[in-house]
UniProtKB/TrEMBL annotation:
<keyword id="KW-0949">S-adenosyl-L-methionine</keyword>
<keyword id="KW-0443">Lipid metabolism</keyword>
<keyword id="KW-0808">Transferase</keyword>
<dbReference type="InterPro" id="IPR029063">
    <property type="entry name" value="SAM-dependent_MTases_sf"/>
</dbReference>
<protein>
    <submittedName>
        <fullName>Cyclopropane-fatty-acyl-phospholipid synthase</fullName>
        <ecNumber>2.1.1.79</ecNumber>
    </submittedName>
</protein>
<keyword id="KW-0489">Methyltransferase</keyword>
<dbReference type="Pfam" id="PF02353">
    <property type="entry name" value="CMAS"/>
</dbReference>
<dbReference type="GO" id="GO:0008825">
    <property type="term" value="F:cyclopropane-fatty-acyl-phospholipid synthase activity"/>
</dbReference>
<comment type="similarity">
    <text>Belongs to the CFA/CMAS family.</text>
</comment>
<dbReference type="InterPro" id="IPR003333">
    <property type="entry name" value="CMAS"/>
</dbReference>
<dbReference type="InterPro" id="IPR050723">
    <property type="entry name" value="CFA/CMAS"/>
</dbReference>
<dbReference type="GO" id="GO:0032259">
    <property type="term" value="P:methylation"/>
</dbReference>
């Protein structure tokens, strides 16, 4: 039922309706008392059952509107792609362009340090990735690769583009039979198993997700790879350094490390990598040099409902930490538009199987929690696609080496690693 109008509002309603009708986008608003305000050409309706949520729209606090939708105070009628167009039009400016004072930077650093202990990181990863394997399976590709695909050919399906991404990474790393290979944050095992089956490596994966660990362990056994593939439920900080790896990958993981721990992370990668070896970090980066999280409440929404503890840094900061740890960056590639297209595939798949997703989540989480999870992911996938399209966030693959200090003749004098210093080997 529509909520009662606060006693102070009747005299203000003409002004409120005028402001709402002047919104810069075609949008229909259903007010908590049942009345409607609409702009011509509207394909999206926001139905408010709460006056405070409506006030957030007037203040352009779109993250708060998202929270109200998750909590059932706003209903959305219309397609997610149309909603994204409306959202971009409602934003007061670029939400990534935020000026930060020295005090806010200090607060952010302190918060980062407190949010990334061993226990906190495990809790935060399980909050997101252990929602339900069956839920993720509804909208991911068959390999459950939960990271940016690589659309090498525009006609590729999502499944083909994900396999192209897995192979792109393996080629960049120059994986060879017998290589000792580590995948940090191995997810549902897509890259780990691809590298083992197609490149003959001895592969180790680590994850903090109990669901993923159980799933990949089962796949390893089913595929008869137990002799040379393993997955461990372990934090990267607890890996032993006595037997360094030839090659290391980390896909969609350093976003969870935290700004305060980024130096620790790359020093660990350096310690785990054999001199002369290759490491590839693939992760989401911010679109602005000075960046904490998206403004207009969008970052707060992601922090609360999707990725608690997640932090995005500009690629220059990532590369700074890479160099400070003693690693040499040899190749960096921006795949930002590829991630926008990946996310639209995921969003469209979730929309197409919305009722199935609800049934899956109800079984695992109960009705009330299931509805909140489903609404949150619906906004998260479409909103993230929008953020990559707009350039507010990006996706970089950064290949680096641990120089061995030897000036040898091959592949080039002074290379100090297996990297050939020509890029064509990736594409042959």
């Amino acid at each position: 039922m529509p909520s009662l109008m606060p006693s102070s509002l009747p005299s203000l309603m003409p002004k409120i309706e005028s402001q709402l009708s002047d919104l810069p986008v075609p949008l229909t608003l259903q007010l908590p008392d049942g009345r409607q305000v609409s702009r011509p050409g509207s394909r999206i309706t926001l139905a408010f059952s709460d006056w405070s949520a409506l006030a957030k729209l007037g203040a352009r606090q779109l993250g708060a509107i998202g929270e109200a939708y998750v909590e059932g105070k706003v209903q959305i009628q219309g397609a997610m792609r149309d909603l994204v167009d409306v959202t971009v039009g409602l934003l007061p400016g670029n939400p990534a362009e935020i000026t930060h004072s020295w005090w806010s930077k200090l607060q952010r650093h302190a918060r980062s340090r407190g949010s990334h202990s061993l226990g906190k990181d495990a809790e935060q990863i399980q909050f997101h990735y252990d929602v339900s394997d069956d839920f993720y399976a509804l909208w991911l590709d068959p390999r459950r690769v939960y990271s940016c695909a690589y659309f090498r050919d525009a006609a590729m399906t999502l499944a083909q583009a994900q396999e192209a991404k897995l192979d792109h990474i393996c080629r960049k790393l120059m994986l060879q039979p017998g290589d000792r290979y580590l995948d940090i944050g191995s997810g549902w095992g897509g890259l780990l198993l691809w590298a083992a089956e197609h490149y003959g490596v001895d592969a180790t994966g680590i994850t903090l997700s109990k669901n993923q660990h159980a799933y990949v362990t089962r796949l390893i056994e089913e595929k008869g790879l137990s002799g040379r593939v393993r997955v461990e439920l372990r934090d990267y900080r607890l890996l032993e350094e006595d037997k360094p790896f030839d090659k290391i990958s980390s896909v969609g993981m350093f976003e969870h490390v935290g700004s305060a721990n980024m130096g620790t992370y790359f020093r660990k990668v350096h310690a785990l990598l054999k001199p002369g070896g290759l490491a590839l970090n693939h992760g989401i980066t911010s679109g602005q040099l000075e960046y904490a999280q998206l403004g207009a409440g969008l970052g707060d929404f992601i922090e609360k409902y999707i990725f608690p503890g997640g932090e995005l840094l500009h690629v220059t900061r990532i590369l700074h930490e890479t160099s400070a740890a003693g690693l040499e960056m040899v190749d960096t590639e921006n795949l930002r538009p590829h991630y926008a297209r990946t996310l639209w595939h995921w969003s469209d798949a979730l929309e197409a199987r919305f009722d199935e997703a609800r049934e899956v989540l109800v079984r695992t989480s109960g009705t009330d929690k299931a509805e909140r999870i489903l609404r949150a992911y619906r906004l998260y996938l479409a909103g993230s696609a929008m953020s990559f399209e707009q350039g507010w966030i990006a996706l970089h693959q950064m290949l680096s080496t641990r120089p061995d200090g030897r000036v040898k003749e091959w592949p080039l004098r002074g290379a100090q690693s297996v990297y050939p210093f020509v890029r064509d080997y990736i594409y042959k």
